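Entry:
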Amino acid sequence: MERTIVHMDLDTFFVSVSRLQNSALVGKPVLVGGSSDRGVVASCSYEARKFGIHSAMPMKLARRLCPEAIIIRGDYEDYSKFSNMITEIISEKAPVYEKSSIDEFYLDLTGMDKFFGCYQWATELRHKIQTETGLPISFGLSKNKTVSKVATGEAKPNGQKQIDFGTEKIFLSPLPVRKIPMIGEKTSHLLRSMGVEKIKTLQEMPVELLENVLGANGISIWKKANAIDNTPVEQYSERKSLSTEETYDSDTTDLNKLKSTLIAMTEKLAFQMRGEQKLTACITVKIRYSNFDTHTTQAKIAYTSCDHTLISKVKELFEKLYQRRMLIRLVGVRFSHLVGGAYQINMFDDSEQMIKLYQAMDQLKKRYGDDKIQRAISLGYQLRKFNPFNGLASG
C-alpha cells in the first residue's frame, strides 16, 4: 500500500501572527527580528521577499534592500500560543502526526482513503485551522515526506497541492535543486559549479558520482531527487523541559565554583537543545541550601538555544535567588516551554557572526565531544566533575 503523507506549513508564521495583532501590517513589507545593524531577519513577509530578503539575512542588508520595511521584534508568547492552538486542532483530527517545528507538521493518512478522500480530508483540516486561528497555512500531499514538503513550497502562499502517485519524479524534475530539503547554500553552490541546476539532472546522474562528491549526503540527495523517502511520520510527543542538577560533596559558598557549574550546565543543555532542534522560552534556576531548603526562580525569554543569551539570564537569576549567603548543597538549571524549530538563532538579537560561531562550535562538539570546547570559566567545573577524588556527584 502506498503511503499518504501530508505536509502542513504555516505561511510566514511570525509575520502572520503579528498581523493578527496589528492589521496595519497587512500588505506591507514586514521583517521580524533584531532592529540593530548586528541583528538578523528571523522571518519576513512575502512583500519583503520581493526585494530579495530572506530569513537569517543580516538586518542591515535587509534594510538597505527595502528601506520602507517595517521591523518588529515579535512576541514569543503569541507564537507559542498559536503554535499550541494549531497542534491541538491537528491532534484532535489526525491519526498520526509529527510536529517538526513550531510552524510545521507531517500527517500520515495512509489507509484513510477507504473511508475518506485524503485530499478532501486535508482540505477540510486546513480550512478548520484557518477559521479557528485566522492564520494562512499551506499543505502538500504525496506518498512521502520529501515530495509533500516540496509540494507545500510550490503551493505557497496559502495554497494546497496534491502530487498523484506515479508522478513524483515528473513533478520534481523541472524544479531548482535548492528545492530539495537538506540542500543548503553551500551544497547548492557546489552543484551549480558542476552544472547541476535542475532536479532532473540529479535524477539522471549516477548515484556513485554524487557519493564521490558529497559522501553519504550525496546518496540521500540522489534518493530525494528521485522521490525515494521512506522516513516515517513519528508520532508527536512534546518534551516539556530539559534540566540538570549537580550536588556538591562539600557544601559551598564559593561563587566562582557555583557560577562555573551553572555556566557549564547551561552550555551542555543548550548544545543538547540545538542537537534536538529545540528552543526554550523559560529558564529556571534552582538552589538547595545545606539545611535542604530548596528555592527556585524563573524567567521568560525570547525563544533561543544560544549559550550567551541563556548564560546571561542564568547568572542573573542565580544572583537574584542567592540572597541568604548560606552554604549551598545543590544547583540546577531547567529549560522549559520548549518548541521544535530549526531557528538556530536568538530570534531578535543574534548577529550573523554569532550564528556562524555556534555552527562551528557545535560541529567541533559533535566530532570531539561536548566537553572539548567550552568557556574558560566553566573549566573549573569540568575539572571538579571528572576528578575521581573530589566526590562531586550528578544530582
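The chain has three domains: 13-77, 91-225, 241-394.
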